[in-house]
Amino acid sequence: SLQVEGLAVSNQQFAESISEPGKAFLDAEFDGILGLAYPSLAVDGVTPVFDNMMAQNLVELPLFSVYMSSYGRG
């Protein structure tokens, strides 16, 4: 299983990315990629983590947010 903020997502597939095309990956510092696309856009038919969270009733609403701070690291 995969842990996201204390929620255990069972049977979640994941993979290692060894090549990322595009300028965004060259210009930005990052330490991972979390796929949150629609299932129809997922690579190899893998169910995205948030869709598994909804299917397993781990979240009340089909809604997520991202907060990105412009200050410091971490």
UniProtKB/TrEMBL annotation:
GO terms for molecular function: aspartic-type endopeptidase activity. Coiled coil: none annotated. Keywords: Aspartyl protease, Hydrolase, Protease, Signal, Zymogen. Signal peptide: none annotated. It comes from the Eukaryota. Pfam families: Asp (PF00026). Residues 1-74 form the Peptidase A1 domain. GO terms for biological process: antigen processing and presentation of exogenous peptide antigen via MHC class II; proteolysis. GO terms for cellular component: endosome. PANTHER family: BETA-SITE APP-CLEAVING ENZYME, ISOFORM A-RELATED, CATHEPSIN E. Belongs to the peptidase A1 family. This is CATE protein.
